[in-house]
Amino acid sequence: MDPLSTLWETFFDGDSMREALPEMLTVGLPNTLILAVSAALLGSVLGMALAVAGLSRTRWLRWPARVYTDVFRGLPAAATILLIGVGLAPLGMQVWGPNPYPLGILALSLIAAAYIGEIFRSGIQSVEAAQLEGARALGFSWGEAMRLVIVPQGVRRVLPAWVNQLIALIKDSSLVYFLGLLASQRELFRIGQDYAANTGNQSALLLAGLCYLLLTVPLTHAVNAIDRRLRRGRTVTVDPDDDGGLALAGETALPQPRTPREDPR
Amino acid sequence: MTAGTATTTSVSLAVRDVHLAFGANRVLRGVDLDVARGATACVIGPSGSGKSTLLRTVNRLIEPDAGDVLLDGRSVLRDDPDALRQRIGMVFQQFNLFPHMTVLRNITLALRRLKKLPEDEAVALARTQLALVGLAGKADSRPAHLSGGQQQRVAIARALALQPEVMLFDEATSALDPELVKGVLGVMAELSAGGMTMVVVTHEMGFARSVADTVAFMDHGVVLEAGAPEAVFETPQHPRLRRFLSQVL
């Protein structure tokens, strides 16, 4: 057999792919989604707490948030997952038995929170101080002003970066295989790898890769679409009909030159 | 139609010897200001003279280092600042509308969350206020889709919806294109005529002259001269005020 067709069969062997496909879709895909979606939710909640703590005027909140972020952004994801998943396993055993998922999700969330916290913080910081002043002048407390006025605007501005983080999370979810998975707990990568190891043929692993792309590429395009909308959506059109014919409205609405205020991250 | 219709009860306002420093920068150096109930005081003066900072000490967006602020003769410096700010409406140079909400929601937000009004009452009140500033048809627009003048009138409606006892205007027309200024000043003049107690920081000398009951001239953190508009504009005493007027009139 010539080397080229050997190479082709190593990666694109139809039989190997067909064999792996059912398990990939019924076991691997749901498990990957469970890991990624749970970690995205928990990571975003923790990330928001970190962002607000990082912006606090009290150094006892700011300082721990800073340290946390430095540590969890600085460690390799594999190291964090092993440290949490293996280190806390005896504790986890007593709470939910020998299931590696809770700790795996916790580890992924802790990592994601460090990045998402920084994303949210930069978004919140990009909201003009005048917005806070406007809300405070109406009588809102600092907390209410943040929750109702500042945070919603800040988060909107960093949605693309946040979605990027979800993409990273989908890929990083493959690392929970370190923690030892039962057959029914395997996610996309582990199933692909098992087939590849058994057959010596990489096609199943390539199929796993395609499944990841199926999840991540649409998200990448969603990021671009959101980004475009944020850039363009702010283009201001003033409609010239105006004022409802009222006497005191002695003004004509003219389009005003206005540049997008969004921070185009 | 008057923009002040929704006004309930105005109060008198007094600022007594207010001092404020940002580090070594002494922004307010003993400011006094008296505004009778229902009266309008215009504060004029060069940029950086402390006018805007003075307004912010009245509703305690900035806490003064020393001095006192009195509403109806009672000091407000020990009140809950959030509750105090519900009694004092403020309008900013840059409008400070919330861009992620419709015009209507900009107005109902505080009514719902702070005044705890039911949704239908809040909406009805907001629509009334919008109609009073001539923007009944804009309730569902986003602020970014309005002209600057319209945005500022929404900001005024938002402040008035809370039925404040005093209104503060911080260069409310300075960010507007010249042709949009008149509509906003018109709303402010009606509010003044309707008996709202107002402090108006402005560069619009024509407005100060025709609407104000008192004009105060500030420079370097003090009120150098204050009095009836005729006195301040026709027979200014302080040389600094004379120089200022010769440059702006």
UniProtKB/TrEMBL annotation, chain A:
Record-linked InterPro entries: AA_ABC_transptr_permease_3TM (IPR010065), ArtM/GltK/GlnP/TcyL/YhdX-like (IPR043429), MetI-like (IPR000515), MetI-like_sf (IPR035906)
Record field: compositional bias (Low complexity): 245-254
Annotated transmembrane regions: 33-55, 75-95, 101-120, 166-184, 204-226
UniProtKB keywords: Amino-acid transport, Cell membrane, Membrane, Transmembrane, Transmembrane helix, Transport
SUPFAM superfamilies: MetI-like
Domain of life, per lineage: Bacteria
ABC transmembrane type-1 domain: residues covered: 29-223
Region ranges (Disordered): 241-265
Membrane topology: Multi-pass membrane protein
Keyword Transmembrane helix: yes
Gene3D superfamilies: MetI-like
Principal localisation: membrane
Localization annotation: Cell membrane
Family, as annotated: Belongs to the binding-protein-dependent transport system permease family. HisMQ subfamily.
Protein name per the record: Amino acid ABC transporter permease
Species whose genome carries this gene: Micromonospora antibiotica
UniProtKB/TrEMBL annotation, chain B:
Cell compartments where the protein resides: Cell membrane
InterPro entries to which the protein is assigned, alphabetical: AAA+_ATPase, ABC_ATPase_HisP-typ, ABC_transporter-like_ATP-bd, ABC_transporter-like_CS, MetN_ABC_transporter-like, P-loop_NTPase
UniProt membrane topology term: Peripheral membrane protein
Pfam families noted in UniProt: ABC_tran
GO molecular function, one term: ATP binding
Signal peptide interval: none
Coiled coil spans: none
PROSITE patterns named in the record: ABC_TRANSPORTER_1, ABC_TRANSPORTER_2
SUPFAM superfamilies: P-loop containing nucleoside triphosphate hydrolases
Alphabetic keyword roster: Amino-acid transport, ATP-binding, Cell membrane, Membrane, Nucleotide-binding, Transport
Chain ranges of the ABC transporter domain: 13-245
Alphabetical list of SMART domains matching this protein: AAA
Main location: membrane
Similarity comment: family membership: Belongs to the ABC transporter superfamily.
Protein name: Amino acid ABC transporter ATP-binding protein
Organism of provenance: Micromonospora antibiotica
